[in-house]
């Protein structure tokens, strides 16, 4: 009987679908690995931006209208 080598697990990249090969380096974070490459991670996050936390202004100060006239009492 041939020796059965344990097959390294793979999982599809969340962005491009390419199989991500398990490696010793990835072992400690394997459960959290979702992308085959940092480029895929960046593209995915660009197309699927995480929900902004409350109070976080995506546009920044530039997106705010200047209010020169405040309602005076
Ligand atoms: Zn990928």
What would the average pLDDT be, to the nearest integer? 82
Strand content: 5-15%
Q: What is the CA–CA distance across the termini?
A: 91 Å
Give the spatial strand order of the biggest sheet: 1-2
Could you estimate the helical fraction of the residues in percent? 10-25%
Which structural class is indicated by helix and strand composition? little secondary structure
The number of helical runs is: 1
Largest sheet: 2 strands, antiparallel
Number of strands: 2
Please trace the helix and strand order, writing H or E for each element.
EEH
What is the overall shape?
Answer: rod-shaped
Uncertain runs: none
Rounded radius of gyration (Å)? 23 Å
What small ligands are held by the chains? zinc ion
Layout of helices and strands, plus pairs?
Blueprint: E1 10-12, E2 19-21, H1 38-47
Antiparallel strand pairs: 1-2
The structure holds zinc ion (ZN).
Overview of the molecule:
- The radius of gyration is 23 Å and the shape is rod-shaped.
- The chain has a domain of 40 residues.
- The chain has one helix and two strands; from the N terminus they run ββα.
- The protein has a two-stranded antiparallel ribbon.
- With 73 residues, the chain is low in regular secondary structure.
- The mean pLDDT is 82.
- Zinc ion binds next to loops.
Characteristics:
single chain; 73 residues; little secondary structure; two-stranded antiparallel ribbon; 1 helix; rod-shaped; binds zinc ion
